[in-house]
Amino acid sequence: MSRRFEAFTQVLERARASRGAALMGICNVTPDSFSDGGRHFTPEAARARVDELLAEGADIVDIGGESTRPGAVPVSAADQIGRVLEVVRYAVSRGACVSVDTACAEVAAATLDVGACVVNDVSCLRDEALAGVAAAAGAPLVLMHARGTQEQMGGFGRCPEDAYGDVVQDVCAEWKAAAYRARSRGVRGERLVMDPGFGFAKSARHSAELLSRLAEVVRAVGVPVAVGASRKSFLTAADADAPPGERLGASIAAALLAVRAGAAIVRVHDVRATRQALELTRRMAGRGAL
Fold first, then answer.
1. pLDDT range class, residue 156, cuts 50, 70, 90
2. Nearest alpha-carbon partner for 63 in 133, 118, 109
3. Cα separation, 281 vs 270, whole angstroms
4. Which residue in 147, 202, 247, 267 is the catalytic one?
5. Which of 28, 94, 144, 150 could be bridged to 197 by S-S, CB 3.0 to 4.6 A?
6. Domains of the chain in sequence order
7. Taking the model in full, what pTM does it have?
8. Is 267 a known active-site residue?
9. Residues paired with 25 in a beta bridge
10. Which of 159, 156, 147 shows the shortest CA–CA distance to 244?
11. Which residues, including other chains, have CB under 8 Å from residue 106's CB and lie 6 or more apart?
């Protein structure tokens, strides 16, 4: 077992035993992310965000230097590395299990070299070289379902309703194809994590259906499932006028539903609030009372 995979497995097992799922806290070192773009863009702000995530109980710190919002323009590997490398190094020095949020093999290699543990690819392996980098490092690889690039995506859940036949079956089939390509580049099957990609080339209805049928996804893919619903636009079904920063209640509800359906990881902006909800739910279910 590789050192990175062993560390990741230990984090996942501890978190699932204590609260049902691991909490992946988001650190966007970008000027233009959909929810918190610019807030953590400077090195000082990014380091402070890492400290905040760890203090709130994040099991994994997910650091990215390229916005994945619909319509976002690509960021060069050099610029991504310039944004995130020292932040990753700092998070590792704080003892964090770090995932790097990138679709670029060069960025993954640079951050793994300074101690990142996990590669989080939101492109569904658009660049197969990324899998080779993860395999060589023995790093877990999160493959998120997506179609096309961020530049090509319609904004905030605007995707044709007929883009999928059965959204669960189609997403799982396309993800399995990407997983096969990853395995062909050396990634062991047990080191893969699946993310259904809420909001990525999906309408609000598609994302809502994936959440409501997440147990089917978990059974179909046979690997740990990560869910990133936090603050996304499909949550406005509960509050049509809520901007991203005011979707906390719906984000927590989505996390609870995902964990109940078998998700192993929830990727969130609001770590403390989500942790409280998961831990209280776990206590109540186990004891029937506090």
1. low
2. 118
3. 17
4. 267
5. 144
6. 3-287 (3.20.20.20)
7. 0.93
8. yes
9. 61, 268
10. 156
11. 77, 81
